[in-house]
Amino acid sequence: MVVITITDEDENREKQEQYLFFKTLVENGGNYEINCTYGNILAKAAAYDNELIINYLVTDLDFNINIESTNDYTPLMFAVEHNSLSAVIELVNLGADISLTNIEGKSAYDIAVEKNYADIINFLEGE
């Protein structure tokens, strides 16, 4: 049996590689405003916990941080749904509106409570 251990360093390296690849695509004319599984690329970056791409989209490309997609989910809600704490922190620090609600009337905080994501609950309670 082979056991593979993934460290924080491996995850950070992967995020950096994804960011550099994405940035290169955009700088060479790639269309980042396409629809994808999560409705938009910022929501996907949030769900996949890539704060580097989130920061690039919002600060360098002026992407709407509160853009709504599937079922009125915002990128912050997708980050919470996927327990992506780094993305939650980055989005809130960049100005994501934590009071917005989805089609079911749930905020990002409500989703965190429903999923029992203690770290995210604690962070959002401090905001």
Overall description:
- The N and C termini lie far apart (45 Å).
- The chain has 127 residues and is mainly alpha-helical.
- Helices cover 54% and strands 0% of the residues.
- The chain contains seven helices and no strands.
- The chain is globular.
- It has a single domain (8-125), classed as Ankyrin repeat-containing domain (Serine Threonine Protein Phosphatase 5, Tetratricopeptide repeat, Alpha Horseshoe), CATH 1.25.40.20.
- Mean pLDDT is 90; it is low at 2-6.
- The chain has helices spanning 8-27, 41-47, 51-60, 75-81, 85-93, 108-115, 118-125.
Can you summarize this structure?
The chain has 127 residues and is mainly alpha-helical.
Q: How many strand segments?
A: 0
What structural class do the secondary elements suggest?
Answer: mainly alpha
Overall pLDDT: 90
Report the biggest beta sheet as strand number plus sense, adding barrel if it closes: none
> Helix fraction?
40-55%
- Characterize the overall form: globular
Q: What does the radius of gyration come to?
A: 15 Å
Domain module tally: 1
Strand content: under 5%
Tally of DSSP helical segments? 7
CATH topology: Serine Threonine Protein Phosphatase 5, Tetratricopeptide repeat
Low-pLDDT runs of 5+ residues are 2-6
| Order of helix and strand elements from N to C terminus | HHHHHHH
CATH superfamily label = Ankyrin repeat-containing domain
Level-1 CATH class name: Mainly Alpha
Any idea what the CATH architecture is? Answer: Alpha Horseshoe
Q: Distance between the terminal alpha carbons, to the nearest Å?
A: 45 Å
